[in-house]
């Protein structure tokens, strides 16, 4: 049970670590093949591009889990604490709504790509599997935003709003 809890709490961290390791390994093999054998591995560039996209998208929920978002905090700093909380929560609500839109459109994209397959040129995989990262990543992002804001009665949010808000 402890292992499952650890995986659930650190899923994005583990996944990003595995993805980065795979990407570096594939690119390392490509460089070695080109340098020593004078030829490249055909699929390595496309595969590493797909891994990079997955890495970037999965870094978003990881950042959300830590409370990191792109915010203009200068405006929050000058507001009184009660109004600061309201403005902050409106921003979080809009971020969750935006995630909902990306989840919905992402699932539509994945469904249509499964229905009308689009195959990548070199790796020869259905692009729906690559596009799957959009709805999954932003679904996890939404969960992490909600956890960060409401777990332990919003303790992390309150600490953030009282602190320096870097």
What layout of secondary structure does this protein have?
Blueprint: H1 2-37, H2 44-65, H3 73-78, H4 81-115, H5 127-131, H6 133-150, H7 155-162
Helix pairs in contact: 1-2, 2-6, 4-6
Fold and architecture overview:
The protein is an all-alpha fold. 78% of the residues lie in helices and 0% in strands. The protein has seven helices and no strands. The chain has helices spanning 2-37, 44-65, 73-78, 81-115, 127-131, 133-150, 155-162. The chain is elongated, with a radius of gyration of 20 Å.
pLDDT < 50 stretches? none
Strand content: under 5%
What fraction, in percent, of the residue positions are helical? over 70%
Overall number of domains: 1
- Summed up, the helix count is 7
Task: Supply Rg.
Answer: 20 Å
**Tell me, what's the shape?**
elongated
Q: Major beta sheet, specifics?
A: none
Measured distance between first and last alpha carbons: 35 Å
Instruction: Indicate the structural class.
Output: mainly alpha
Indicate the mean pLDDT: 88
Note the run of SSEs as H and E.
HHHHHHH
Number of strands: 0
Please give a handful of descriptors for the protein shown.
mainly alpha; 7 helices; 78% helix; elongated
């Amino acid at each position: 049970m402890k292992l499952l809890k650890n995986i659930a709490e650190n899923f994005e961290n583990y996944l990003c670590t595995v993805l980065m390791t795979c990407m570096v390994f594939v690119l390392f093999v490509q460089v070695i093949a080109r340098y020593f054998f004078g030829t490249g591995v055909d699929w390595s560039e496309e595969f590493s591009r797909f891994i990079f996209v997955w890495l970037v998208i999965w870094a978003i929920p990881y950042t959300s889990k830590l409370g990191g978002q792109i915010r203009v905090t200068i405006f929050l700093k000058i507001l009184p604490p009660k109004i600061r909380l309201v403005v902050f929560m409106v921003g979080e609500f809009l971020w969750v709504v935006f995630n909902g839109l990306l989840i919905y459109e992402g699932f539509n994209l994945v469904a249509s790509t499964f229905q009308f397959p689009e195959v990548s040129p070199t790796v020869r995989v259905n692009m729906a599997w690559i596009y799957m990262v959009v709805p999954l990543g932003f679904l996890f992002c939404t969960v992490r935003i909600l956890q960060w804001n409401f777990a332990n009665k919003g303790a992390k949010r309150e600490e953030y709003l009282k602190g320096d808000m870097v």
